[in-house]
Design brief:
32% of the residues lie in helices and 22% in strands. It is of the alpha+beta class. A 7-stranded mixed beta sheet has the order 17-18-16-15-21-22-23. A 6-stranded mixed beta sheet has the order 3-2-1-5-14-13, sandwiched between helices. The protein is globular, with a radius of gyration of 22 Å. The model has no long low-confidence stretch (mean pLDDT 93).
Length: 499
């Protein structure tokens, strides 16, 4: 029997292929970054062909690293940056334009246009989502309206739409030679085109957005055998798991009970709470989404608080300002000062997501004095992640009626000890970092493993989860609330910037 599982983790800034053993330990991995393309203010794109090349490269490197053969893998799971939108020709495989990334705000005018009838919650009852630049539907509409001949090709049945999971599955299973055009319920739930009750594309919403149904993929569960890979290095291996990256992290953190919560610190920050088989509507600025669906079992839903810019702010400090040489340097720079010096950084580069949903907001640095230096700015960058997390956590507690007594964390930023301690301080609850931190890729491999019998049940997965580090709150209540009031004041300064 094959001893390992594979996971293809295609994120906002890089692509990884990881191999895990039965205990969830990493056996082999390879990772490559891809270009972030900024053609205009507010626009963020990726080259789909570059992502496909990186995908093939990391699969090859990870398999060769441990001299693995396809027969060594029981199955492969796919996890991906969500909402990022690709339209490509089914006969040539060529994308009609670059992928429009989830952070992109070019459809801001369309948000206003569609909000005139019914407000930003016009489709929330069906989809769980407010009208926003974030989700895929308006990105699809923009491509159909602005790329030459795109609508004509779509209506002729020549184009396919997919989020990155769908695009990669199609390429991995043959592409123009019979590639599978399929997505899973978690990714479909991020398009603003899927009805949460029926788990199918909503005909009325498709008509409102003027999106032809024939370009959309089949919606499947998160854990089933989709097909077999037809590329070098993994040819014949079953692809059997698929989840959007944050749902994959929820699954990898074994948050299988209603009320279980995880927070992922990556390019953005994403907190999800499992709400069981009931889709809970939010009154506090969160979104309702599908958490996962295992085979023919009912879907599990989740409440999600999405923050657009967290780790990306550290990259901005590195790439745009040159204040640090590598992302890991942010912690040592922040430690050169004992506090933020009154400086707050609200990173509303793409507007504000949860709990505000203000597309008119833009980034601000508030509280600057002659005393402030680059150390204070670095500390403000890290603290902004913790403050935004507190806002989401408070909204989640109000929506769910559940008091959170600890927070499970994952993602690249959890290696930052200063951030994790401040996160515990500002929340006043313990913050937990698991032994296995690559929970996004792990969740995708778990879903694949369940589909092929590599794991028997969810209890098998729970046994793999363990705490490596716990941070306890050390800040006194008066200081905590003083800092948080300063943050809330700074946030208001970011509003109404775009007219």
């Amino acid at each position: 029997m094959a001893a390992y599982l594979g996971a293809l983790d295609q994120g906002t800034t890089s692509t990884r292929f990881m191999v895990f053993d039965h205990a969830g330990r990493i056996v082999s991995q390879a990772q490559e970054e891809h270009e972030q393309i900024y053609p205009a203010a507010g626009c963020v794109e990726h080259d789909p062909e570059e992502i496909w090349r990186r995908t093939q490269d990391v699969i090859s490197r990870a398999m060769k690293q441990k001299v693995l053969q396809p027969r060594d893998l029981a199955a492969i799971g796919i996890t991906n940056q969500r909402e990022t939108t690709i339209l490509w020709n089914r006969l040539s495989g060529e994308a009609v334009c670059n992928a429009i990334v989830w952070q992109d705000t070019r459809v801001e005018g369309m948000v206003s246009e569609f909000s005139r009838q019914g407000g930003i919650d016009r489709f929330r009852a069906e989809t769980g989502l407010p009208l926003s630049t974030y989700f895929s539907a308006l990105k699809i509409r923009w491509i159909l309206e602005n790329i030459r001949d795109a609508r004509k090709q779509a209506e002729a049945g020549e184009l396919l739409f997919g989020t990155v999971d769908t695009y990669l599955l199609w390429r991995l299973t043959g592409g123009v030679n019979g590639g599978l055009h399929t997505t899973d319920v978690t990714n479909a739930s991020r398009t603003q085109l899927m009805n949460l009750a029926t788990l199918d594309w909503d005909a009325e919403i498709l008509a409102a957005f003027e999106i032809p149904r024939n370009i959309l993929p089949r919606i499947a569960s998160s854990s089933e055998i989709f097909g077999e890979a037809k590329v070098d290095g993994i040819s014949g291996v079953k692809i059997a798991g698929m989840l959007g990256d944050q749902q994959a992290a929820l699954f990898g953190q074994t948050c299988f009970h209603p009320g279980d919560v995880k927070n992922t610190y990556g390019t953005g920050c994403f907190m999800l709470m499992n709400t069981g088989e009931r889709a809970v509507a939010s009154n506090c600025g969160l979104i309702t989404t599908v958490g996962y669906k295992l085979g023919a079992s009912p879907a599990n839903y989740a409440l999600e608080g999405s923050v657009a810019i967290t780790g990306a702010l550290v990259q901005w400090m590195r790439d745009n300002l040159g204040l640090i040489h590598k992302s890991g340097d942010i912690e040592s720079l922040a430690r050169t000062v004992k506090d933020n010096g009154g400086v707050y950084f609200v990173p509303a580069f793409s507007g504000l997501y949860a709990p505000y949903w203000r597309s008119d907001a833009r980034g601000v640095i508030a509280g600057l004095t002659r005393f402030a230096n680059k150390g204070h700015l670095a500390r403000a960058v890290l603290e902004s992640t913790a403050f935004q997390t507190r806002e989401v956590l408070e909204a989640m507690e109000r929506d769910s009626g559940i008091r959170l007594f600890s927070l499970r964390t994952d993602g690249g930023m959890v290696e930052n000890e200063l951030l994790m301690q401040f996160q515990s301080d500002i929340l006043n609850i313990p913050v937990l970092r698991p032994v296995i931190k690559e929970t996004t890729a792990l969740g995708a491999s778990y879903a694949a493993g369940l589909a092929v019998g590599f794991y028997s049940n969810l209890e098998d997965l729970r046994q793999n989860w363990a705490v490596e580090t716990t941070w306890e709150a050390r800040m006194d209540a008066e200081q905590r609330e003083h800092l948080y009031r300063g943050w809330k004041k700074a946030v208001t300064r970011s509003f109404d910037w775009v007219e």
